[in-house]
Amino acid sequence: MVIARGYSLCFVPSGKFYKKCSKIINELSKKYNAPRFEPHVTIIPQINLSKEEVIKKTSELASLLKPFTIRLKGLDYNKEYFTCLFAKVKESKLIMEANKNARRTFWVKNKASYMPHLSLMYGFFPSKIKKEIIKKIGKSLNTNFKADRIFIFDVNSSPEEWKI
Description:
Blueprint: E1 7-11, H1 15-32, E2 41-47, H2 51-64, E3 68-77, E4 85-89, H3 93-105, E5 117-121, H4 127-137, E6 144-147, E7 151-154
Antiparallel strand pairs: 1-2, 1-7, 3-4, 3-6, 4-5
Helix pairs in contact: 2-3
């Protein structure tokens, strides 16, 4: 099991789309004994500041951002635990600016490129399994949702225990 540390900033879908993503994540979790987690698109994965500081700076960040649409565009996978299987997010100017503003607000010096995505399964699984899942789910997640609130996740535990 992989455990993150600190806090993470995310956009969380709502309504019917939230329910659809949640259902997929829960079904994959049960079938493959993978962790369950809330559907989300991460803005910054790991912030190591106090809870109070994270809340204060998130409020500052929120004042810089306007609501926008996050567009999903197909499924993909890789070998990393937290991006084992995911829906790709179209790299719009607004989502990339959200990440850039968040990095600036939280003094994140990490030069790793930002790949916006909505994870569907965490873990280390063979490519064959991930390809089968993608074939089954198909284009059912080629949709969009409104990013109008920033959620702070406490990720100081396993994904099943993360708290918003």
